Amino acid sequence: MTSATRNDRMLTAEQLRSAISDGTIDTVLLAFTDMQGRLQGKFIHGEFFVESVLGHGTEGCNYLLTVDVEMNTVDGYDLTSWEKGYGDMMFVLDLDTIRLLPQRAGTAMIQCDLTLADGSPVEVSPRQILRRQIERAAQLGFTAFAGTELEFVMFQTSFEQGWNNGYRDLVPMNQYNVDYSVLGSLLVEPLLREIRRVTYAAGMNVESAKGECNLGQHEIAFKYAEVMTTADNHSVYKTIAKDVVRSAGGSITFMAKPNQREGNSCHIHMSLRGAEDGALVFWDEATHSRTKLYDHFIAGVLATMREFTLLYAPNINSYKRFALGSFAPTAIAWGMDNRTCAVRLVGEGGSARMENRLPGGDVNPYLALAAMLAGGLYGIENELELEPELVGNAYSSDAPVVPKTLAEAREEWAGSALAAAAFGEDVVRHYTNYADVEIAAFDAAVTDWELRRGFERL
Region 192-196: what's the mean pLDDT? Predict the structure, then answer.
């Protein structure tokens, strides 16, 4: 977070020290976001934090950036291995991210960057990947702003019941499509209100909540911010929402496609401003139209979309969301306020921005924002021409399509010279291996679908 986006609900280091001293806060959670977009970290006792951690940071095993979803150690990563001994990496406190976790009494949280023992950054960590693109934008004279619209599905069934029952017969919190339904939202408003209340108190600028199409599906929107702030808030919000819903005896999922109905999207809105003066660079007020720079940015996002899809859709399940007529995109095209395209342009003047509709609710926000920013900067640097607008139904167009599987996205990413140039070959290898691990795990699994079709009849 930067000083420009700080608000009085965030804490300074001195305020945190004082709150620990007077007993208001007794626990400090230090966390970073891993490859899968999850918060990982330690709960530090308050007095020990002041004495030994505030000025020095702490450490954690470097395997945290080389495990699968199940936390299994896997081969193939340059960062660490059994042969290298699984050593530590340092948690470097970002003191601009100190916030309360109001749903947990006496608890504050700080988000961290990761470094190696010699102090060099862990280049494959998601926060560092985004930071590199922020630095690239600054060198070109820009600051990037973004907002993420994250959907979820809530169930009356608890997390534990769902796990024990193999996630069968889950009871959604709404029994019918509640898209924009006031009544449908009122039925779950106590939970939605609690999530909004807690996230606001935790330093986020909450805008609104609304129902969505799947049963029990809703969305809580937050005001746009500088891209690192948005990514930090996104990760904390998901954790808070799960904690709040679990405490109420229910469950919530951000999976891209949790069932046969509509999937969970994470539409990302992004724009650039002048780094020094905050000037508009996407809009020409004199002509009341987009600038050439904005068009180059859009063209770059489109030109890199297939090769960067792994960062927008990182899981096997992500690709089941991409279906014709689903409001999830299949066509790599742009349109004015056209929700059938992967890129939708909205707003005028200071609100002019592009919406990337490709990511799902399972996305790692740091990686998706980094991919989008890298693509746009590539378009600006190379002055890419923007293709004509797609008018009408993009699902039935002849536009190029997004990868249909994780395996296809993996191939696009692994062989991408653009990805290597934008992120570095070490990052490309790291996340190629991530995809390989997920694909191998899925290929080895015997699914309910296979058993139902083949146990007796084959």
Answer: 98
